[in-house]
# Entry
Amino acid sequence: MTPEVIIVLVSLVAMLAALIMDKMRPGMILFSVVVIFLCTGILSPAEMLAGFSNKGMITVALLFLVSEGVRQSGALTDLIKKLLPQKNATVFKSQIRMLPTIAFISAFLNNTPVVVIFAPIIKRWASAVKLPATYFLIPLSYVTILGGICTLIGTSTNLVVDSMIQDAGMKGLGMFELGKVGIFIAVAGIIYLLLFSKRLLPAERPEQLKEDDEEKDRSIHPVEAIIGPRFPGINKRVTDFDFQRHYGAVIKELRRGGNSYTDFSSLRFREGDTLIVLADDSFIKAWGESSVFLMLANGKDTEPAGKKKRWFALVLLLFMIVGATVGELPGIERLLPEGIKLDMFFFVSVTTVIMAWTKIFPPRKYTKYISWDILITIACAFAISKAMENSGVADLIAGYIIELSHSHGPYVLLAAMFIITNIFTELITNNAAAALSFPLALSLSEQLDVNPMPFFVVICMAASASFSTPIGYQTNLIVQGIGNYKFTDFVRIGLPLNIITFIISITVVPLIWSF
# Structure
């Protein structure tokens, strides 16, 4: 082994360990590894910075703003209320109305705001119609993931892989190309949830919070607050952190992993904890748009925007999707002036600027709506992928994988690629999983002299199929908090869904993208 190979392998192992132990935010962990590669000469400054100017990464940033614009318009709030049955509601009847529609929405919008909007509404509705909210919240998160795998913009991972494909000198993915396999997985996943979610998910867990004298003041009411990555008290003792001084609210209960705690003496704050706090109406106004909390819910509906604003937001979204799809059609590029390309980057840029100037989202606060850690993770993922290629680590690991499955052909390697990527995405993050898997897939296909596209598509499917743990996807973390689920609830219902995704992927992908 060369010194470069040893440095990259040791750094990657350390990176995985730090991500699994949650030592820092993923973006800073990946950035630290990239700096090591820069200092050892494995990456040049240009290669290190290439990801920060990558078109796919910037497209992800702009899609955060488009999703926020649609969220603030109130269009999604109206939709979910019309979908939920108010009379004679059953679990099956409600899910069959909700799940396909939510999956469709998530194919075009970031899934986190979709879950943040829908989860508290669904929880209130379930209480009103006397159905357990626990039968709906995990399925809500899962269908946003299933919808996301069907389009290029459905999840940031698809855009990352698409950019890596183009950087490797190949034609990128079309807007709906991943839907050729994603739609089969989404339909199978929705059918599975309709048939088995009631059997595999727990009935509603009782909540411990009791009304006390403080709550009898009707200006004070309970608020559910799910701790986000920028909460300053993470890893601090609850009793040592003056929550009331910071936020003007009092913690009455902490929920974590399906358990409720009112004795905080031995507890430390963690990302994803759900706090039940007593606060007045100013609490949500002050912190509702902050990344300190992933979600705030006080049992009330937000004030809807005007009808014209809702419709305009939806028209802009449709303009972006249709424009990017038409721009991919054969012959369109030849009709345009040189230098103009009607791709997703073009239309999401135009849509974002129109939304800002028409105040669909508050333009002065636009930086609040972008998840900077995800962007830094993506940018660093490109650099790590390049370091694996430069050092020869990708070729080395690919060679070992080929030897282990010698004489079994590319189908076995395709399955191996899915399993490796899926394990990574469950333990770390989906974008980091794609970054580690992509150079392996590229090297595998080159050494076998086969078409790499089946491997790239499988990476997209596997990196998004985070169903078995609450930590792999932020939406899982959000519904774990608001639904008070245990870790084992995700394993019980999510592992079969991982297996369904695996079987469909390795069966259908080679039929559409031949080796």
Observations:
- The two ends are 31 Å apart (CA to CA).
